[in-house]
Amino acid sequence: MPFLSNQECYKEVEKLVKTWPLDLYQFHTTLIKDRGATHGVDFSVIFSIPTKTRAVPEHTAMVSVTIIPSPEGLDGENNEIKTYYQLETQRQPIDGKTPFRREWLDSIIKRKRMILEASTLFKQEGKLPQPRAFIPGENMAKDVVAQAAFLGEVDAIDRVEETAAALADSLEVEARNRDESAEELENLLVSIFTQADHDGNGVLDEREFKLLLDTSELDLSDTEKKQLLAMADANSDGFISYAEFAPMGADIIQTMRMRRLHATATAYNSNVAEAQARETLHGMGEEQMTAFLLDAFRTFDADGNGTLDPSEMKACLEQLDLSASQGREPVHFSTREVGIVMQFMDDNDSGTIEYNEFAPLMFNWMVEAIKLGFMQTQVTELEAYLQQHVAAYDTNGTGKIGRANIKKALFEADLLKPPLTPVQIFALLADAEFDEEDMLLYVKFLTVAAPLVQGMCDPLLEHKRDQVQKRAQISTPLQALTEEEKRHFLMMVERIFTGYDKDGSGKLEFAEFRQCLKESQLGLSDKQISYLMSVSDTDEDGTIDYHEFVVLFFEALVELARMEAIEREVKAEAVANFASLMLDPSWYAIPLHIIFDLACDGAEDVEGAKFADALAEKAEREWGFPPDGIAPILDELRATEKLSYNTFVELLVGFTGAPPAPSTAAAPAEEAPTGEE
Description:
The chain is built from 24 helices and eleven strands. By secondary structure, the protein is an alpha+beta fold. Among the domains are: about 5-125, no CATH class; about 475-565, EF-hand (Recoverin, domain 1), CATH 1.10.238.10; about 585-665, Recoverin, domain 1 (Orthogonal Bundle). The longest helix is centred in the middle third of the chain and has 59 residues, at about 240-300. The model is unreliable at about 70-75, about 325-330 and about 660-675 (pLDDT under 50).
């Protein structure tokens, strides 16, 4: 970096000072001395707050700023400009990267004003101001608070770093969860269900279901477990099949994930707010902090005896507002919390609270109050709606609501789309702080819960639950076989297997096994044969053992049939989605009409194959639809010799099962629409 001129150094000082939080302070910069490239250029920056009557007030504060303009100065290996500043009351310079605090200027000017007032009083009356009354324990408390402030700030910064790493991990997990397919979620649910089915009978009884709920981190009561059991047991047979379990299981997994992310984010935000609060208090300076704590102590020391008796301390705790923010509900200690604090405050069991006991606790209250101020942000629309909605259930207007009423209020919050599920509501209330009377300060609760509610109402989560439920409910004719029919089927399989087992070893080589399946009269496709072969060699010895095979064969066929049914369902949904969008005037109906007109080339109809090619070109290459999603529609078009626009609309409607939108049923553009169309 080239050597900087004094003018360029001056600009660096101005740029630095303008980054400081000065509020009403104005400043004036003056070059003091150029000490060369090694020691830098010194500037004086004078701060003051002008008034209407005095442009330059009587009291000012000075900060010296030094610019090391050359890389050879102080840190020869670093090409950065080095900047230091030093307040007039400080002995050591501070690195320019260290945040500046406006409170430092306030403290300097306050001290100068006090000195001037004392001097004036001495000149006029020959005496100094009356010193304030000394409070026992003041010096001891000063050291304790200073140490607590320092250690607390270091600890808060450490916790910010720890929770930042945890939050990064949680966000990474959340990103993976959002990308999780319905099939992956289903595999997880099947694994959970299988582990919970201790007796292996394919269903969960009440005991197994409740044990599974105990792992959900929802802190459910027995009554709530029974409610979830009743909701899951769709056919009321007292057992939970996988199809009944899947949607609720997906809901529980999603809710657990959301709660963990929310808890990590809340912990991180809380630690950041505490670090900011401690940094703010650090900026007050030791003198200002001491003055504040002493004033607070005197306020509650009603009889002025230098101690707080139990009644005075109780009044202090009850009046203390920890909200630290205008426009928010006041935050006070509860009666129970006051009792706990009173119990632990009197360190020396004297029956009274000395200042050295009071000051550290008051300092911690200040940290908490400022921390809450940093955490409290603008009330979101969702939070405002929830507060207004839940307030309607607070019939006495106390700001508190019972457990049953808050559940009911959340269940009936009809503007939430999608609405909250029972599992989600139980999860929200698991984090709620109910008092000894089982009442909840709902404004405070909803402030914390609103971000979690917003995450729970993500339409993507509901879509995945719906997909999992559909997949779980898909069944095939094989699943409907009776036990007698299954036994007969396995006897058929055994006859086929033993027919190819010429040496009676009970095993077939892979090639023999493939030929066995291919020539059987079971009607298996190549895909089904490949799948059965892949799952049959359980010990991976290159041969198929009959005992291995017979155990897995039926279940493998059932699973394969189900997978194929799911695949057909997915394809059908894709086709229906494509057809619906083609009929929607706000999406593709108009472009589709234009494509048809161009394909007609002035005629009233067009060859189906010609229009199919034109539609495939647009839909696949420009609109990005997957081939599977439009193939059945294209096949229908190619099978049609002559195609009118109305015929095409009817074809699309057949794939959706819904009536066409009025605007899409119109004739081509050159024709006037009719009422019949």
